[in-house]
Amino acid sequence: MRFLSNYRENWTKLVIASFLLCLVFSIGALAQANSNKPLDDDAVSTLVDELKDGLSNLVEEPQLAAITKKWDAREDLVGKTKAAILKLLFADVKSVVKDKETQDNVWSLWTKSGGKNAVTEPEPAPKPTPAPKPTPVPKPASGPAETAYFIIVSVGTDYPLIVKDGDIKRWPDDDANSNSRWEFKPAGDGYYYIINTKFKLAVVAGDVFDGNIYLQDPKGRDNAKWKLIPLGFNKFRIIDKKHGKVLAYDAGHAEYFGEVQHADRVGIPYEIWEIVLLGGNKDIPKEIEIDKIDQE
């Protein structure tokens, strides 16, 4: 009898435990389904209306009208998750609102936990204080010939190309020293070696394309030869001869300093650089317009 009683007691505990386990998994699965569930037409309309209401407190009326027009024209939202939809709609916001602070405020409202339409996003790293751009020299220095030297600045962030810890990075130039000064030495056929004035080494892409940029002796290699593609007012795409790819920086972390990349040309701001003359009057690339160096 004692055996039978123990058996029934153990069986009851097993049933209860199994029920609780199933309940836990069911709740977890439901939560996951809700966060990743594609939205139907009605849910998309409701979401867009809510976002419009919130946006009216952050942007001017003409901007809101332009953004709303873009949103209303979209036919690619139904069937996507909320997170995917927010990213598409935010791209429309950025195409109209150019003020970075306002863009950040909109995205913060949409993604922080207190927002009605919040989605989970990783917290960004702290933003550094941008270094001021050096005062450009409008014309080459007169007098004895001196090799011209430049800074190469990432458009939109004002961070120059700099040698730091033996690597080439996009970094605030706090000391305005020769780590961020570059010479353009003719390499033939309209290409240039880009040489750091302090280390006398060049900007070099991989011998085999690997997406990286190195500080090395050029040794006449085609992956150390770069062509300047003018975009106006001394802004350029910089493309290597061997692979035909651009000098760029990480599109996912454009507002932060960090690594420089060797990437496919896709026509985005993250592959555009402004070249600013600091001094000298010799070996100035013909693509650089001296009388436009101080213009925006």
Secondary structure topology:
Elements: H1 2-36, H2 41-55, H3 61-73, H4 82-96, H5 100-111, E1 149-154, E2 161-164, E3 167-170, E4 182-188, E5 191-196, E6 202-205, E7 213-216, E8 226-230, E9 235-240, E10 246-249, E11 258-263, E12 273-279
Antiparallel strand pairs: 1-12, 2-3, 3-11, 4-5, 6-7, 8-9, 9-12, 10-11
Helix pairs in contact: 3-4, 4-5
Based on the model shown, name its key terms.
disordered C terminus; 12 strands; four-stranded antiparallel sheet; 296 residues
The chain-level mean pLDDT equals 76
Which blocks of ≥5 consecutive residues have pLDDT under 50? 1-7, 17-35, 119-126, 292-296
Derived from helix and strand composition plus strand pairing, the structural class reads alpha+beta
Number of helical elements: 5
Run of helices and strands: HHHHHEEEEEEEEEEEE
Care to count the β-strands? 12
**Cα-to-Cα separation, first versus last residue:** 94 Å
What is the overall silhouette? elongated
Helix amount: 25-40%
User: Looking across the biggest beta sheet, what order are the strands in?
Assistant: 1-12-9-8
Please state roughly what percent of the residues sit in beta strands, choosing from under 5%, 5-15%, 15-25%, 25-35%, 35-45% or over 45%.
15-25%
Radius of gyration: 28 Å
Biggest sheet layout:
4 strands, antiparallel
